[in-house]
Amino acid sequence: MSRIRGKDTSIELRLRKALWKEGLRFRKHYKKAPGTPDVALVGTKVAIFCDSTFWHGYDWDDRKQALKSNRDFWIKKIERNIQRDQDVNEKLSNEGWVVLRFWDFEINKKIEDVIKQITEVHNLRKKETGFSNA
Q: With contact defined as beta carbons under 8 Å apart, do 30 and 99 qualify?
């Protein structure tokens, strides 16, 4: 597990490159927001997380049945991650942030849809808050 990256993963890099190409400017690993979002559009308070299907428990009820070795450790760890994600979402929402979470397969296979969703939320928030990046 020591080789597992917490920051600058391939899916984060791919998403950030696409956002930059789209003209969106952001902060990465924004420590002033709860949960340190992978990407933060600070002016419009949009927090974006890039979640791995394994570490964040995609389709968890089915996947945990497939675990063969060290089941107790992995089940406890992944369920703790799922709970932490929910807590972070709640904290961010309470502070006025919009939280967007994307699975790795969405970023890898449907990056255009992901970018479209982010830009729609960002533009909506700009209208709501009167934010201008000029």
A: no
**Residue 123: how many CA atoms within 13 Å on its side-chain side?**
8
What whole-number distance in Å separates Cα of residue 102 and Cα of residue 31? 20
Pairing of strands 46-51, 98-103: parallel
The per-residue pLDDT for range 53-66, each reduced to its tens digit, is 988 999 998 888 88
Domains of the chain, start order: 10-119 (3.40.960.10)
What is the spatial distance between Cα 91 and Cα 57, in angstroms, rounded to a whole number?
A: 20
* Terminal Cα-to-Cα distance of the chain (whole angstroms): 43
Can you give the pTM of this predicted structure?
0.90
